[in-house]
Amino acid sequence: MTEIRVKTSKRVEAVNITEHITKMVESGQGTLVHIYTPHTTCGITINEEADPDVMRDIIDAFERIVPANHPYRHGEGNSDAHIKATLAGSSVTVPYIKGKPALGTWQGIFLMEFDGPRERKVIITLI
Amino acid sequence: MTEIRVKTSKRVEAVNITEHITKMVESGQGTLVHIYTPHTTCGITINEEADPDVMRDIIDAFERIVPANHPYRHGEGNSDAHIKATLAGSSVTVPYIKGKPALGTWQGIFLMEFDGPRERKVIITLI
Amino acid sequence: MTEIRVKTSKRVEAVNITEHITKMVESGQGTLVHIYTPHTTCGITINEEADPDVMRDIIDAFERIVPANHPYRHGEGNSDAHIKATLAGSSVTVPYIKGKPALGTWQGIFLMEFDGPRERKVIITLI
User: What ranges do the domains of chain C cover?
Assistant: First the structure.
């Protein structure tokens, strides 16, 4: 189990963290890697890393689905970020084979920041 | 592996089940805990437990994203609950360290009821 | 760890893959089965398999939440499929007991195709 820190630079953005996971499983023995963020206003997802516009489209769609401006109950002004975190999910689990994550050709692993900029923790566990 | 029962009291609501998971991992040995619900109209999510308004905002947002009133095909009148269950997901997996789930300061684990009130099963597995 | 191939026949559709998972865990020893797709325009979900209209309602709802027609940035015309894949998630994990997945009475495991028709890979791992 390893904890890494990810710095985000905007309120909403997707940060590619694939390299951290790839490095960790290189020396690991097992079959699955679990990537988890212990926060309530960001999420973890897997999607295309080749064209950065894909994650931008995803971030924008989340904003349309859950607008930041709405008369939410929670008084901290970041309810939309909490809702988006539940839609994205707080972890992903990926198989790995011979020290390499079984990611598809286009797949990358992303931290989805919905209430930044902040420093975020990501906990990586090998199974 | 342990199965618990969770009683829900409304059609839609979030029930905090963190305490059950915390108790179970206290005596467990391993690195991850998997929390699963074998139903198709509720889900499991991780989000803020400090202010109950956060989960209320999330439940309300799910209702706006997937209205209960829509000419759905499925004849049982609970299609919105099925759709919300897929958006939320049927399980979460959380690391645990020295008998404690590695939840962040604000994180709790919730059963999201979308078609209650009912008694729901939750299966907790240590890895 | 086993890889199966799933052929999809439409642009968007849900394909029931439960039987493949059931067969694989029959001979397996462990407590959890992880079902993963290494693609960025399809997802894996658990929902009702008894009435096929449930998954049709879910697929239709995803289309309303994330319309195919929108001025997305990504130039390949399938941004909606990428967004839907992140909403659905790329994997599910299910407990299994004595060679049977602990699926509820109504639950089935589905590949959600959002940019077909194609042949899709699904990687099944026993824990």
Answer: 2-126
